[in-house]
Design brief:
The strands form three sheets. The protein has a seven-stranded parallel β-sheet, with helices on both faces. The chain contains ten helices and twelve strands. Bound molecules: NADPH dihydro-nicotinamide-adenine-dinucleotide phosphate. Belongs to the NAD(P)-dependent epimerase/dehydratase family. Dihydroflavonol-4-reductase subfamily.
């Protein structure tokens, strides 16, 4: 298949490119600069990968040109969305998340009629319901934040959660109102760890979830957002994206793509057992309590055919990758 992938410079996206190419697909990635495009081309030299510049996914018509190509696209993977807490206004997160999602769907609907499937990287943030948590989280559950809360909260993490909820909701609403040619699949991962393949010029530039693992390795877990006590390996999530475009049964389905719950202490213990140089250097407390709810990831296993790799493999590979970057 010829696949358009948005946000090609991101942590998750580069693994999606890798898996798409391994499955024999041709990829066109959107990136914000030639430098980021060249990095990808160098990483996947000799493979059917090209790039197109989309500078700001929040802008009206941002994807209108990118979706038009010969031969035409058959599938779209939309990963681009801001995942950081460095904002001056909640709209810094809400606009790219929501407009980016509606923008890609509108562009495909209007100008890329050959696209059969659009896969969107949503988040457990779009599922997690803090005011009324269920006993078991499934794909049926939705974050209950309102748009008013999204616009007025002074907590950037809450604004991020809202950005993912309203972006995913906008996608399902678009499907309902526009009845496009394509079907949709949304993937809802919690914290994503694993090897870093994307361009990272300095450890200060790490994506949010890799930075969290770096802090845990460095023994300063509390210096940043704690995040959900649940994880998925970026390679398993990338495979889920590929399976979601390949598998007819994924049509119009939402998937909770999460391996398991794990406390910060469990993660830290795995790191200490495998990297003894950090023993005794923990500079802040780590939480060791699991939440009073669990998750049901059986749909991702039964419908997508996903097999989750063990937590220890994910953590060890993540830390090795961070050490290779200078940690
Ligand atoms: P990254 O920050 O590594 O990647 C985000 C991507 O989105 C980058 O390519 C970035 O481009 C692009 N992007 C952000 N804002 C804009 C914009 N306004 N215009 C154009 N491009 C933009 O994050 P991840 O790879 O971790 O996240 C990928 C997806 O996965 C996101 O949708 C995120 O919400 C979701 N997710 C991530 C989780 C995690 O733990 N990592 C957990 C759950 C969901 P550039 O590099 O140029 O800034």
């Amino acid at each position: 298949m010829k696949v358009l992938l948005t946000g090609g410079s991101g942590f998750v996206a580069v693994h999606c490119v890798d898996l798409l190419l391994q499955h024999g697909h041709e990829v066109v990635a959107t990136v914000r600069s030639d430098e980021k495009g060249h990095y990808l081309q160098e990483l996947f030299k000799g493979k059917p990968l090209s790039y197109v510049i989309v500078k700001d996914i929040a802008a009206e018509g941002a994807f209108d040109e990118a979706v038009q190509t010969e031969p035409p696209f058959e599938a779209v993977v939309h990963t681009a969305s801001p995942f950081h807490f460095n904002i001056t206004n909640n709209k810094d997160l809400l606009d790219p998340a929501i407009n980016g999602t509606t923008g890609i769907l509108k562009a495909v609907h209007k100008s890329a009629k050959t696209v059969n499937r659009v896969v969107i990287t949503s988040s457990f943030a779009a599922i997690s319901n803090y005011s009324n948590p269920p006993k078991v989280y499934t794909e049926e559950i939705w974050n209950d934040q309102t748009m008013e809360e999204a616009l007025t909260t002074t907590n950037p993490q809450a604004a991020y959660r809202a950005s993912k909820k309203f972006a995913e909701k906008a996608a399902w609403d678009f499907l309902e109102s526009e009845k496009p040619n394509f079907t949709l699949a949304t993937l809802c991962p919690p914290m994503i760890y694993g090897p870093v393949l994307h361009q990272v010029k300095s450890l200060d530039d790490l994506n949010t979830s890799s930075a969290r693992m770096l802090r845990l390795y460095q023994g300063i877990p509390r210096s940043g957002p704690v995040g959900s006590p649940m994880h998925v390996d970026v390679r398993d999530l990338a495979l889920a994206h590929v399976l979601a475009i390949e598998n007819p049964e994924a049509a119009n389905q939402r998937f909770l793509v999460a391996a398991q719950l794990a406390t910060e202490k469990e993660l830290r213990d795995i790191i200490e057992n495998n990297f003894p140089e950090i023993r005794g250097k923990l500079r802040d407390e780590v939480t060791d309590t699991l939440p009073p709810w669990s998750i049901d990831n059986s749909k991702s296993v039964n419908v997508l055919g996903l097999k989750y790799r063990p937590l220890e493999d994910t953590i060890v590979d993540t830390v090795n990758s961070l050490k290779a970057l200078g940690a």
